[in-house]
Each structure stands twice: as C-alpha cells, then as structure tokens.
Amino acid sequence: MVQNLEKQSNPYDRLMTSALDLFYHRGYSGTSTNQLIADSGTHKASFYRYFQSKEEIALEYLKLQGENFENGLQRMMERAPSWKEFINTWNGVLLKQVKSGRFLGCPVARFINSVEEKNEEFEIVSDKIIESWIRILESYFESEKKVGRLDSSVNCLAAAKKILKLFQGSSQLFRITGKKEYFQELKAEMIEVLSGSRK
Question: What residue ranges does this record give for the DNA-binding region (predicted)?
C-alpha cells in the first residue's frame, strides 16, 4: 500500500487512507500508531503535526466513515425512481460486497466493537453519525410519501430506525456466522417495514 500512497503528496491524506484500511480491517485495538505511520509512508513528525494521538485520528476515521456511508445512501436515493428501487439497489450493493469478501460489517459498529475500553468520545461521535443516518432515511421516506409512492400510514421516523436496525442486525449476524442468508432475507424485511397498510 505504501507505494500507492506515495503518489499522494499530502501526509494527512495518506494517513487517513491508511486509517480507513487499518481501522476497518484490524479494528482500533489491533492498529498501532506506528502501523499507521509505516503503512502511510509518513513519519512520526508528520503524524503528530496532524494528530495528538491514535484516538484523535480514530475520531476523524469515524466521522469520515459516517460521511462516506451517508453519501452512498444519498447517491442511491437520488438515482432510484422509487423507495423500492432504493432498497433493491442498497441490498444489491451489500450482497455484491459480501460475495466479494469486502464487507466486514458496518464500519462504525465494527470500530466500536474493537475498542477494548469504554470511550465516551467515540460513543458521542458514533451516536451523532447514527442519528444523521436516521434523519437522511426519514427525510427520504417523507419525500416518497409526499409524492404518493410510500403508504401514508408509514411512520417515517420509526421506519428509518427499523431499517437501520435491520441493516445493523444483519451485518452483525453475518459477521458472527458467515452466513449470507441474513443479507438475502434483508430486502424482503426492509420492504415489509415500508409497506404500511398495503401489506
């Protein structure tokens, strides 16, 4: 990875690229500051110019993963002609990632599960990320309801929370068992939540 990262002139960008890879694959406890420095092809002086500690770069990692996930949802929503197509596309992307071996779980949940001791700062940032994901889903479902594509009986906030719970639960169960069936069932479960009185 170092060779590719050397093409990035900004040490901050190289450090964050390494953080995205190492924290996702090895977790917080499994990644040291020295590994981040070596993997990014930077130096200790560069690391400490941008971050006071491993915890500080980890907080940036969490925020970046939260934004990446949200941007991904937004892109799928904008391209989908209806909420059902959005759900179909999202599940298609997840199954593709699972089959390729690239999906190791929700990056935020995976990170928090890898932290050995309780960390209030991580929890505060993670909570804000989850709330933001819920809001973007709720807003999308409200817009679908306004144009008549989503049943008027659907509580959009409750539906957004349930959709996220289904995603997180399926991700965790897949990681625990290695069984793809949890993602194969996910689409139908999400559609059921959003079907309202039309079920």
Answer: 32-51
Backbone angles phi, psi at 119, to 5 degrees: -135, 110
Rounded to whole angstroms, the Cα distance separating 139 from 176 reads: 32
Rounded to an integer, what distance in angstroms lies between the CA atom of residue 24 and that of residue 31? 10
The domains of the chain, with CATH numbers, are 1-51 (1.10.10), 54-198 (1.10.357.10)
- pLDDT tens digits along 23-59: 999 999 999 999 999 999 999 999 999 999 999 999 9
Token pair in block for residue 77: 């929503």
pLDDT tens digit string along 183-198? 999 999 999 999 975 5
In eight-state DSSP terms, residue 148 is T
